[in-house]
Design a protein that fits this description.
single chain, 5 helices
Amino acid sequence: WIGESYYVRGQYKNAADAFLHGYKKYKKGQKAPDTLLKLGMSLAELGQKEAACSTFNELKAKFPQAPQHIGEEAKFWRKKAGC
């Protein structure tokens, strides 16, 4: 939730750091796909296109069976980031 709180306040660097830390710690956790999505969103908001696109690619590759809403949100953000 720390990353979420930073993200909604527009503190995208802190959000990205929190989401990255959470993903590294819980790569196989239930929230891992959502954490990667939010990491990519934070990176996109920071203008870090390559890192954001790489994160969205990793999400698709590692979690092809992620819930539909996560896939749809990632698709939207891929387009927004210019991936």
